[in-house]
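Reviewers of the previous submission asked for a worked example of the structure-prediction workflow described in the proposal, so we include one complete record here. The input consisted solely of the amino acid sequence. No template or homolog information was supplied to the procedure at any stage.
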Amino acid sequence: MNIRRLPLSILPILFLSLAVLITGCSNQLQAAPPPSITPTSSLAENTPSDTPTPTTETATSTPTTPPANRQLPNPAATLTQVPVESVEFGLAAINILRPGQLSLHTSPIRIIANLATPYTLHATITLYGEDGRTILEETRYPLPYDDPVNGNLITEIEFTLPGFVEAGRLEIKVEDKVERILALNSIELILLASSHTARNYAPESNARILLQLPAAGQEIAGDAVLVSGWVRTDSDSPLDIWLQDEEGETIAQGQASVVLNPEQSLGQFVASIPYQVEERTPVRLAIGISDGTIPGYTFIYSTELFLSPPTN
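From that input alone, the workflow returned the following structure tokens.
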């Protein structure tokens, strides 16, 4: 390869051209401003600052005392606006699958229910008339396993009416050997002497009482039991509460006031039930709802506790 050497006479010209080129590039770089970065709103909000900037939002808190125009037995009963979907009641111990609430029914009535264990010993089915009289009462023995879909108690009952149509209530309850009520559930019906049956197929399967205090099997020492929880009802009628020992004797009873949520069929209840025992005593706590048009309980929930006298 032949490499020709440049004449020395042209070197000043090359250095001058290179200097002009470098000066022009430097001027272009200085003329172009650096790109500006505008922070987005989310970045600006998360940027730390030495001086906090006040916002227009103000923190709100739920009042711990009831309104002046409403008397409550305890501030714990004050309701907040809690959506009914957020309160999980779970399944009732007695699920009435058929017939549904407010069904129009002629005789016989086909009943499908599920009794949760250990309430599968036997069940008492009672049909009440609109004046509270007992139209019929029969004992049935469910299958000894849970079946929330198909039921473990399938039977029929027959009835007669003195007139053509009458409001009624179908009740299913379970008792222990000393006749303490373990669970009770019911539905209201329209009883017809004749005509066609029109059933409502919506099951009455959800519990209506959610007990928060006391816990099942709780050991309580003192002279009173604090009872509180939620109830599904449209009535502000007080709930009946009673405590029975293993012989079936009632050792304490009282009532719990219900504070309704005005926008939902949901209420909160609280009560303090005084008691006296001389030694550690197993008891059953029962809570009854009486919110129907026909006299009597529409739902009863129960659980076991252990009561002891005050400790010194």
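Helices lie at 11-31, 41-46. We consider this example representative of the routine output the project will generate in years two and three.
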